[in-house]
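Troubleshooting: if your tokenizer reports a length mismatch, compare your output against this known-good record of 540 residues.
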Amino acid sequence: MSQSVSETPSHTDYDAIVVGAGMGGIYGVHRLVSQGLSVLGLEGAPDVGGVWYHNAYPGARVDIESASYCYFFDRELYNEWEWSERYAAQPEILAYLRHVADRFDVRKHFRFNTYMTSGTWNEEQGHYLVTTEDGESFTARFLVMCTGQLSKPRPPTFPGLDEFTGEWYQTSAWPQEGAELQGKRIAVIGTGSSGVQAITALAPVAEHLTVFQRTPNYSVPARNRPADARKRTRFADNIDQVWDELMTTGSGLILPPTRGASSQYTPEQIEQLLEERWAFGGQSLLSLFTDQGIDPEVNEVVAQFVRERVLDTVTDPETAEALVPDEYPIGVRRLCIDTGYYETFNRDNVSLVDIKADPIETITETGIRLTSGREIELDVIVFALGFNAFTGALDQAGVRNEAGLAPSDRWVRGPRTFLGLTTHGFPNLFLVTGPGSPSVLANMNVANVQHLDFVGDLITYMDEHGYLRVEPTQQAEDEWTEHAASIAEPMLRRKHDNYMVHVNHDDGSRVFIPYAGGFNEYVDRANQVVADGYAGFDFK
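Known-good structure output:
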């Protein structure tokens, strides 16, 4: 076995620095500490939670079932926590993460209120020098980035915002003390997943709610209800088997099975199957047919089914037509999961503004003025603008190799990684659920744990073989990137603009950023890498 870093001539403060204290960071610290490593966690917030700390807006809740959006690594932990809802709301998820942090005493390894500003690899010393916003610095042999792929908010850039005399908030950076919204004239700008959730929750408390929509999104009912106690017991009693089952699913979720190609069914049978998935709720609609993500005609059948539900639900014909998502196929962008979104527009105190037809000209002292000259007076503006996905938080952390390059400097034509976890030229750096992994296409908690177990096992392998440095070979990175691209080639998602697609504007070529082969296929390939003695990695 090789010497520990602290015993080598070049002293290093920690074996590993884990950045982020969300679901990934909590488990990452626990896993690495459990295998005997010295670990420092860095987190900009005052406590654990990650996106579930910051996204404290009204209506925030998980869009996959709580029973699967949790940890499975400890049987007692799973048994002692009871979810109250099928789709847990933000306060309950945050309470769960705090409970886990308490139970495994991970907070003592974290420095909170501490943002990482740079992390530079020193080849001679064999470690990263990490500096923080407050001027402190630490060294570590390994740098494990658990910063998430949807964690760096897009700031509002509307002209006149500084002149607004009311209050404004971002869903992705909601004040922890809450906001006084009762009886206010509220605007929500953005109708993605966060916007849909916020709109549904704000309507009942607002004097009037004005929704500013540029592009209507597909939204399907969650069918939220009290948690299924029998399902929890079944999972808890068979936790190892459930984990193994999650590893064999395409998304890290246990959902109704895919029903094969749509061509196997009559139109009447297809309608019945769609009705069943609509009644079941949630993400299951996206995995009904094997060809709905690649065949435009099949996709249109599913999309039209959802459009008809919108028209059936919204009573005002003009509003209903404006809410119908018809500009892109269903599943191309993130599917919204709601608890009464379209019904909200039947309220007398809710109105919709189409800002594609009449764009926002400026924010004024008292509200918003549109290009047409129409002015809407407001007390509160809520921005639901999404995130700088995949590289936003990574770039902000300032990771650099010895040549001074950031990972994204090598990704000008789209991210290039091996397994979505590592990238050539950056030794001992791990990008948990990064580009080239299933990432946002999978249950992020399950994916986080699978990735971090891979990282932990890899570090153990290195120590057992006397290795201090690892990075993927250029060949392995090239082959993985080409493999991921070939799988994504036929996808409708790749052909339409969305945050999962990188477009090279010089030639129009498109790179699909997550790994689209399915979580199960990814797990199999990662396991094969291990079985082959970590083939594709260069050790020193």
